Amino acid sequence: MAKTPMLKFVHTPRQMPLKREAGVRKEDFDEIYAEFADQKAAEQSGRCSQCGVPYCQSHCPLHNNIPDWLKLTAEGRLQEAYEISQLTNTFPEICGRICPQDRLCEGNCVIEQSGHGTVTIGAVEKYITDTAWEEGWVKPITPSEERRESVGIIGAGPGGLAAADYLRRAGLQVTVYDSHDRAGGLMTYGIPGFKLEKPVVMRRNEQLEAGGVRFVLNCRVGEDMSFEDIREQHDAVIIATGVYKSRDLKGPGSGAKGIVRAIDYLTASNRASNFGDDVPEFKSGELNADGKRVVVIGGGDTAMDCVRTAIRQGATSVKCLYRRDRANMPGSQREVANAEEEGVVFEWLTAPVGFKGEPVEGVLAQKMRLGLPDATGRQSPEVIEGSDYEEPADLVIKALGFEAEELPTLWGQPELEVTRWGTVKAEFTTGRTSLPGVYAVGDIVRGASLVVWAIRDGRDCADAVLGDLAPAGAIAAE
């Protein structure tokens, strides 16, 4: 019997792909991790214990067949590994780069719990699909039959694109509408290149277009085209707009020049640094950290993107203010470590109460301590009396999260039911809304969440659309 390539976790230590040195990587927007070599990918995949109940798979929102493609990679059967990987994940090379594996698959790896260090699942996932692209295994969509049914998708982020991929593979006619000039949503304009290089996203857009998905870009629903017009043109409509309304920060001086929204800051940076677009606000310095003392307020992944972007733009100093401690922050611990290596200073248990100067010269802050747990179980921050101080700043970036825009008002659709948070009220797993033939997926339903959950929603919703539009015996287009 051939010797198994698996179960090597006892003797083979966990190893990530080489990470570029902080002093080098902070000078550009390239991804910070190198690619696994074939031998190293096989070696690290061979550490998988092939659990009978794989917690990595059950804690992945897409329930990816992780043990299977790890075993195939360890055996050198990369094309088969890719085919298994893409069965459940529309964009595995993107999830391999930006998923918080430390909180999902890797964070629930059985050998991690036994003290041997988790399998490097995300890095192997990225390697498999990058290899598939290089070898030409990734092909344009070719439906076995064309069908008459048409679906319009509003929003070209991960949820909308996942649904488009799935529906197009089934032969439906798919049109994606988006307000930006490039598809991809936050994957294109929100996430910096050092986490997700833009050619990775653009080639997926090109693959979808080559497979017959039609894109209508620079289209603002409610302005350039009405929601009713879109409904009239299609048999079903999927709302996948995401949430882009930034949570605001109140307090004296909060309207001062130099206090900006994270989404505006990151979009300007991505346009200028990754696409070479002419961005007046970037050139003028309004949305550029070069030579400035930068303070970012927030503790999520968006805040981590902002602090690391500011470092690369040449800020003289970068500080992140977060009102809880490190253990209670929502952002990825891996991203915090990367930011610290690059020179970001974190001021834990610190909250802003106002701003000084016009334009801004400083953030007025207070030190906090953690008190009793709130309704969610997290300890609530409490002010330490007499702890007020000023944090000097020339640029303040608000990274406090996102909320849903008022779609019923913006689109003139009062019948579209929303929750008390403003998100679209949709049926669990199917995405069906209060409007016949209209579905919703991703952040516009969940609130600000992960790319992988948007992909899951898009896939599940596409399944429901197929079931609703094409009961058994549906006739293909001639």
TrEMBL record:
Pfam family, one: Pyr_redox_2
Protein name stated in the entry: Glutamate synthase (NADPH) small subunit
This protein's record includes keyword Iron: yes
GO terms assigned for molecular function: 4 iron, 4 sulfur cluster binding; metal ion binding; oxidoreductase activity
Keywords, sorted A to Z: 4Fe-4S, Iron, Iron-sulfur, Metal-binding, Oxidoreductase
InterPro entries membership: DPD_II, FAD/NAD-bd_sf, FAD/NAD-binding_dom, GltD-like, Helical_ferredxn
Residues of the FAD/NAD(P)-binding domain: 151-458
Domain Dihydroprymidine dehydrogenase: start-end pairs: 25-136
The keyword Oxidoreductase is annotated on this UniProt entry: yes
